[in-house]
Every structure is written in structure tokens, then in C-alpha cells.
Amino acid sequence: MMRIHKVYHRLSFLSLSPPSPPPCALPLKLSQFGPLRTAGHLRTKSRRNSARLSSTMISSSSSRLRNLVPVNSVLAEDGGSNGSAASSAATATIEDEALEAGYRLPPPEIRDIVDAPPLPALSLSPHRDKILFLKRRALPPLAELARPEEKLAGMRIDGKCNTRSRMSFYTGIGIHQLLSDGSLGPEKEVHGLPDGAKINFVTWSPDGQHLSFSVRVDDEENNSSMLRVWVADVETGETRPLFQSHDICLNAVFENFVWVNNSTLLVCMIPLSRGDPPKKPLVPSGPKIQSNELKNVVQVRTFQDLLKDEYDEDLFDYYATSQLVLASLDGTTREVGTPAVYTSMDPSPDRKYLLITSIHRPYSFIVPCGRFPKKVDLWTTDGVFVRELCDLPLAENIPIAFNSVRKGMRSINWRADKPSTLYWAETQDEGDAKVEVSPRDIVYTQPAEPLEGEEKPTILHKLDLRYGGISWCDDSLALVYESWYKTRRTRTWVISPGFNDVSPRILFDRSSEDVYSDPGSPMLRRTSVGTYVIAKIKKENCEGNYVLLNGSGATPEGNIPFLDLFEINTGSKVRIWESDKEKYYETVVAFMSDQNDGDLLLDQLKILTSKESKTENTQYFIKSWHDKKACQITNFPHPYPQLASLQKEMIRYQRKDGVQLTATLYLPPGYDPSKEGPLPCLVWSYPGEFKSKEAAGQVRGSPNEFPGIGPTSALLWLARRFAILSGPTIPIIGEGDEEANDRYVEQLVASAEAAVEEVIRRGVAHPSKIAVGGHSYGAFMTANLLAHAPHLFCCGIARSGAYNRTLTPFGFQNEDRTLWEATTTYVEMSPFMSANKIKKPILLIHGEEDSNPGTLTMQSDRFFNALKGHGALCRLAILPYESHGYAARESIMHVLWETDRWLQKFCVSNTSDVNADLNTCTDDVNVGATDSKSKPVAASGGGGQELVEFEHEDRHPMPRSLLCPLMHRKLF
After folding, report:
1. Residue 926 confidence (pLDDT) above 90
2. Which residue of the set 210, 884, 894, 968 is catalytic?
3. DSSP assignment, residue 812?
């Protein structure tokens, strides 16, 4: 399922998401709105840990993760600041209060923005005649995160609900008719749900007449916290449970349910014969033993939450095992197959077959469940077994080098343009990216049930780079994608799947880093059977093979999204639409005129766009080509009117080695430099790696995008009169055979120096009041800057980072060399090794239950102890129950309080050389902790300072643009 996401600081938009995307479309990160945590790094399918929408899905106000930035927190709950003029007695009292246990609140100007009600998510019906408004709540209470969870096979499971833990939900569904004039009709509320219903996995039936979704209600007495499948009639809004029996509950640990046809669903239910969970033995049966007596080379990254023993294996089976049930809307049900750990169920386009994937023993104690033995079978939609496609063994030894993959059949999918034809890829290099071989991947195709004598699959295409997916159109046209991370090379092939005499040819061959040369991706249309294929466009009085390329339009002035009419055979193109580059940022989201099969007439096109500006939040429009009209279909209120007049500018400057850099500069509403002078400034960023200076210097993003503000965004501190330098580019460049990280510190410092010099030159930032912060790899950056560039910043805020790279010896971030291959690099990059050099105040924040590979909570614990051991002015706040991103209201508010206090104390009030002050700090301050799990644990060292947190940004180790051009496009 393709997910299109605009992730803003405040609100995250889920864009249109068709049920049958091209196989190359990597499920994009579903940003958990408000009460939800950002769970992109946990996702195996976008339907898993977040509310799923099976047709077109949009979310309201959006913003890019790269822009997430923190700002200040105040010392006291009433918002009072910590001024430098306080008496020594008052200061002592303040320090005592700062170490008190308990959750704190940030000042009202920050708190009011964070507590604002979230806007709904939107979902278009298959026929584009209706739109769902999916209601959401504000931030969840900590009690929800405190629910017991099982950490098994790289996942976290809520045993009470038998689903992934910390799952987001909707609180209601509103249905709007899309009227003939393009406006929305009045809302029809889906009704008949139990009070307090938590809704997940909202899915349209193929004909758009019904909705299916799960419902749970927290009620300890009658066990209704289990998920149950409900259906709703779209015309009336009436709902009812799909199963009459209250004992049939959904198992949503992996797959959940899927429409087999317009009236039947295939559901993963908890086996009725399942008893109580296995009990952990009081006495172990023996020692825990791992062995490598065969001397196999097995290198794995620092995965977390893995299975530990036989009991964990049994517990994993208990929660993950499902019984498949065919359930019709008329109430008939039938069990199919036997209970197993089913991970996916994909109907063929003609709805005659099912592609069923399951995992099985032997399990592993060193890799997560995605690498367990995997079996893929073909069934009929009546539940009759047809044949086994593959049974892949345990994959513990996939090399850590990028572009290494699992051996055997992978990426098995249905052709979107055929009734029931399968295709997949198989590696020819044993899955090892370091092996030189040609071809490297082969793509095969085969009918679901081959005719006698045709059992051998057909070779569709051979690739010398790593396969990245296919966009299908018909027998005359398909686009095949391949890429290679080391060189950043990406290629698009044109093939004719139904004509063996037509030779494949390269359509695009470019660097994935070169955003200026990105031609865009083909727009997809919905077929009558619900799949999505490349839309062929017919132009009046013109012969040719036309498609529409939808691109972000990166330019030196910022992104200007566009639509190009592209002739596949000749490569000629004409720009038929582009965003207004003067004021607005508008992007094409989907077709609204593709309800019928066949070519689309250019002069009859209708498209859905999202439109925003610096001061106007995102609204959605329907544009008609024939009358050139644009009809606005949403009218969402401004999410934070108190910052509606903030000032935003995309700025450019240069690093001392000539690399062009960019950043987004935000200034508070009504800021007048002649009256206020330079402001305290917060710099929030996240380094990136590049293979060329030219690519590193290209502008990404638009100056006209709406500045969305998330619950822990740095932009919140605009309300506290800070200047915010958001996302200044920190390129780490390794040209040719050079490895970028070998000059990490040098390039990091040079980039930071250029950014600081620019805001000082502009007169918006006070030279002694510039703070730096970041989340995850941005926290790693922050600690390194305080160690190696103490002259630039007055203090730092580091959230959920990793600081000692020897604890991640088999690679981290985009580094795929091991510690033993690049010892010097690992050591020099680690701020832990330079803890004795950090003399500026640093605030560390970490979730106590961080599940992100590489950023174990231990990283912050040990780094804090190293800092304290050298008398550094530091503070560590550990957030109970929180993972890599922070979710609970209590946690987020406390993070904001910690942050604001830190910034007020060491940035706003900084009037002297902090280095001189720190040289006199020798006394440690005891840990202000509590044994209660209901309070944050805070620790201070050196000067007894505090901690804070902001919205985080997770990065996939491989850029999405390298995996497939469709992955990072706003396609439908």
C-alpha cells in the first residue's frame, strides 16, 4: 500500500494511499499524530502500528521531519523564567526545584500550541465520490504507554489487545459526499459504535459501499480491549460487528484483515482454541548458549527487543499465531488453513487467488522476525491451497553492506495490470553487495497457475544494480527501477512485458542525490479492479505514448512542484502545470478523473492538490483541466493562530571549502531587528551524507511551505521569542573512493561555523546566545559540536542519541564498515571519547524504552557518567515508558519544560563566558531520581543543570530515493 506523507512540525498528513501500489513503493513512515509516536522505523506494512486507510488517505496539516526543531522550556509550571539576576539563595532554591521528582509543564505559550486539537485525517473513496474525515485526539496520557508490553523478535506487543503496542487510533469517522460542483456535502457521522471506541485499520471495500475497521474499548471487566472487526454502510453510516460471536477477536500483530471481494473479508483472528499465555519457568532449563563452531561470518547491527530464550519463542508464537477466517457481510464464516504466524495476505487483482506469507521456526536470538524463515504460498480466495512459491531459510548472515539482501525469491507481488500474474526478484550475488557479478538481480514472472509445460518462470528483466521495483502499465509498457547506494546511481528502464522482440532501454540514468535532475515519477491511475497502474494520457490531435510525470521540481530557489506531459518513446516533454512559485507551495496528490479504464483525456483531467503558504496551512483543491477551475474542498482552521504571522525565510550561505549550504530561518511574529536587536537562537539539525559537493549544495524544500509545528518541535520556541535555524544542511561528503565519515568532525564543524556566522551576519542571533540541538543522529551531532566547536554554541540539547560508536561495532547510520575495518573513524566520531572536551552545558534526554537500533538508553547513561566524571555541566532526563520518539502528554510536556528551562538558563541568560564558569565547577550533584515509574528520572552533573526534548526525525539507513523513484513521490 502506497503511503504519501507530508510530515509537518505540528500535524502530519497521510496522503492518498491506494490499496495496490507498485511493488517498489516502500511504505513510508506513518507519522503518529498528536498522541501517536512516530513509528516509521517500526513499520513492516503501513497497516501495522497505525490506523490504516486502504484507499486514498490524506492527513491535514503537514511538515517535513527534517524541519523539526526544539525550543525553550521554562523552569516553573507557571512559565516563570530563570533570570541571571536572581540572588544566590533564589538560585539554590531553583536548583533544588529542578531536581524535584515529578512531571512539569512548559509555559502557557508553548503548552497551548501543543494541546491544540489535531485536525482529522482524510481518505478518498475508490470512486472519488466520498471523503472520510477520521477524527483524532490530542496527546495520550502516560497510563497508555504504561500498559504491559512484550518485547519479542524486534517487536513490542500489547498482550491485552493482541496487537502492536502503543497503537494510534481514531475516535470517530465522518463521511462527506463530494458534490458535482467540487464542494463537500454535510458530514454524516458513522454511528452505532460503543462509547469510547478506538478505531483502527479503516479500509474501503473495493466498490466503496462499505468500510471495515477494528474497534476496541478499554474495559478490564469484559475483556473488550481486544480488537473486533466492524463494518459500516457508507450510505447510511450504520455500523455493526462483522462477527456475531463476541469470542472472535482480531490478531493484529502482523496482518489484520483484507477485502477479498465486495462482500467478503479474510481476517486474522486469534485461534479460539488458544489458552492462557505460556508461563515463564521459575527455574531455567539450562544456560543460554549461542555457538559459532562452524566459524560462519555473521555480522548484525544492534537490533533490540530480540528473542532471548525458549520461553520467548513460545510467547512469540502465542501472540503472533493467527487462524484465517473468511467472513461475509451476510454473517457466514469459514475457517481456512491451519493456525500459523501469517504476516501478509494479498489478493490477486481478479480476486481469485491469495498470496499468503508466514514465518516459522527455527527462530533467531540475534536478528528480528523479518529475517526468520519465511514461507510464501498461493491459495484460492476460497481458502484452497494451490502451491508453495518458496520457503526461505533463516537469514542471520545478510551482510551489513548497503544493498545486501536476502537470498532467494524476494519482493513477490501481483502484476497490477494482469488478473493473476506473479513477479519477483532473485539475487545473483548471494545477497552480498560486495560481490561483483553481472547481472546482480533477475526479475521473473509467472502465472498464478502455470499451464502444463510452463512451470518454469519467465525472465522479465536482468539488472546490474539492485532491483527497486516496477511500475506497471500494460503489455507494452512498464518501468523497472534499480539503484546502487555506494555510487548513488539510480536507473529507470522501459520494458514491454508482452513483447519479447522489444529490447529494454534506459529511460533515466542519474544520481539520486542530484535533485535538480529529478524528472519526477509517473502518475498512477486506479483500475476497475482496484489496482494502480501508470496512467496513459491521450492528447487531442496528437499521436504518441504519453504519461504524466509528477515531480517536486527542485531548483536553486526551492521546490516548485510540476506536472510534465512526457512522451515515453521520444523523451520529449511539455510542462502543463507547476506550482505558483511566488507565494504558494502546491503539490499534486492524485487523479480525481480515473474511475474508468483506458487512456485519460488530457482536457478532461481532474486532479487533487494540496496547497499551502508560509502563513496559510494546507488545504485541498480539485482542479479541472477543461474549465481551468480550482475548487477548495477543505477549510481547516489555522492550528496555532498565535504564530500565524511568524517570519520564514530559506537562506543560502557557503562553507569554507566552497560547499553551498541552506537552512530555513524562522523569526517570531512581529520581530523588528531595529527594536529587539539580535535574539537568542536555536539551531536544530541532522547531518546527511553525500558523494559530491554539487549534490550537497543543492536546495531542498520550499520557502513557501507551511511551517508545521509538532508537539516537540523547535518552532515552539518562536512563542518564546527565539530565532530558529531549522535544518541547516550538515553535509558529510565522501567523493570518489573517499568515505564520508573519515572527515566527519572536520566537515561537521565547518558546516556549523558557516551557519552560525550567517545568522550573526544577518543580525538576528546574539553571538553568545546560540544553542544547538538534535534528535537521534542529530543528538550525536550536538555532542560532537560541543566537543569540537565549543566557541560556536552556549549550550546543547541532545535527545535519544548514540555517543559511543564502539557500542555499534557493525555499522551505524550510513556507515557500513565495521569497527575493526575503520577503528580510527569509529573512535574519532564518538563524542564519548571526547567527553573531557565538553565544557558547555549539555542536556541529554532519552526514552527509557528506546527500541531504535543503535540508540540504546545505555548510550545516554554512559555518556552522562563520562561527562560528570570530568566535571561537565550536564543533565540527563530519562523518560519512563518512552521509546525513540516521545508520545505521552506528561513526557512531552516535561521535555518541553526541561528544554525551556535549559535554554532560558544557559542561552537567554548567558551574559558571560560559560567556559570560564565551567572551569570552576567541581562538585557533582546527586541524582534527582525516583523509584516510581510515574515520574521522569532526572540527573544533573557539574553545575546541576537540566534536560529537554524535541520532535525527532528517524532516518532509514538508505535514502528512499535510492530504493525506487516512486518511494519519495507524492503519487497515487
Report:
1. no
2. 884
3. B
